[in-house]
Amino acid sequence: MTKWTVAGQRRVKTQTDETHAVWRGIGCLMGLIVPVICWELAVVTVKVAVASNWPLPYQLMGHPVMPALLWKSAALIPALVFIEGRQNLYAVLAVTFAYIIVASASISFAYALAYRFFGPGRYGPYDAPPPRVSVRRYKR
């Protein structure tokens, strides 16, 4: 028992750790939908680039080649056949990665902008007001 009975009788508030549905939706958008959309955009971009004769690195073009060691595993053969059948796979992966970075940055910027305008205030009801101090430049 404590020295003061009021302190000993306090109850601890339980906080719920449930994430709001909007934040789960944003996570789904960032984790699943954005890479799929970026992959499809990259496929279209590489097709247009090849048709328009854009200067693309020759190392990224053509069918990918897998090492001979991987072909010894019978379980990997269907996956390797699928991967080697994809035309310009390395170029599509590089463009997909670039699109994912741009899309994620755009979504993050839009979220930060919306949070700035519609989010909670900077100071809560129990915070002290910011100090009003005018600072002058020090001259010797």
Summarize the structure.
With 140 residues, the chain is an all-alpha fold. It has helices at residues 5-8, 21-51, 77-84, 89-118.
Notes on the protein architecture:
The chain is mainly alpha-helical. It has a domain at 59-114. The protein is 52% helix and 0% strand. It has four helices and no strands. Helix 2 packs antiparallel against helix 4 (89-118). The longest helix has 31 residues, at 21-51. The radius of gyration is 28 Å and the shape is elongated. The model has no long low-confidence stretch (mean pLDDT 85).
Key terms for this structure?
single chain, 140 residues, mainly alpha, 4 helices
The protein's oligomeric status is single chain
**What are the segments in which pLDDT stays under 50 over at least 5 consecutive residues?**
none
Please state the overall shape, judged from the principal axes of the Cα atoms: elongated
Largest sheet properties = none
Helix content: 40-55%
The number of E-state strands comes to: 0
| SSE succession | HHHH
Tally of helical runs? 4
End-to-end CA span = 61 Å
β-strand percent reads: under 5%
